[in-house]
Amino acid sequence: MLALVIKGIAIGAAGLAAIYGGVTRTKIGRRVARKFMLYMLNTMPPPYPRDAPFAARVKPHGPLTKLADALWVVEGTVPGMPLLRNMLIYQLPGTSDLLLFSVMCVDQQVLDDIDRLGTVAYIHIPCSWHTLDADAYHVRYPNAKLLAPRRSLGDMKSKVAAPVEAVEDHFPQVTFPNSSVGTKKTTENPIRWFAAKGASDAFDEVELLVNLPGPSGKRAILANDLLEAKDTDRPRLSFIGTVLMVDDRRTMRNWMLSLVDMVREQNVEVFTLSHARALQGISKICSSLSNAANDF
Hints:
CATH class of the largest domain: Alpha Beta
Shape: globular
Strand order of the largest sheet: 1-2-3-4-5-6-7
Distance between the termini: 39 Å
Radius of gyration: 20 Å
CATH superfamily of the largest domain: Ribonuclease Z/Hydroxyacylglutathione hydrolase-like
Number of domains: 2
Structural class: alpha/beta
Strand content: 15-25%
């Protein structure tokens, strides 16, 4: 009897492994699962009414914490989910202008801390899945420009009441000679953007490469859902991330490996993620990206 139970468990485990592999490792499996997952995500009720005031949207979060010169983070959680949620604050070098990346509503103490840093000039919505508190921030900072990837603007119309402009119209793209490393031709602009290769149509985000102040030429990458991590020392694409984001695994893997070259060439010292703690140090960032790429 025990042997039959063990055999049944083994068969069940093998079946689940086969389903998991079929979904994550095949393009058709990911595409079918993606349609179902997007339907579920798009029909989920929001955690609070769309017109809820700023204060009613505040969930438990940490203080404003410095990651590097001109770069800060506030850590919170996704409402109703045990998932880390980060908001980044970046100050453009030589100015008082601030860019907020993937906003979440915070208490008055943190708002006062942000206002002491400078003037909120840009609110970057990194993708069409990170719109929850965008309107609330537009009400608080009406003179700030709401920016989002061009590919996401169609979905933004039904999710964000305020006008949203394409981030690509405000900042230049990081170019990739030979589809690998970034150049230094546009480094006079402190903010540049880049997008993943091999991603699905549902993955409509862009990441930002930003200059940090000082003579050393250090930079940071502000990334959104590119990776996440329950174990902060091992960021990787989750099952949900693989289904939603990846269309062509080989192309995505090669692109992610190209980021390793970009991190070294562009002297990237900080790599932030919306759902994991920031990676710091070129060596740490490169090893994490290499490990994540090898998961494909």
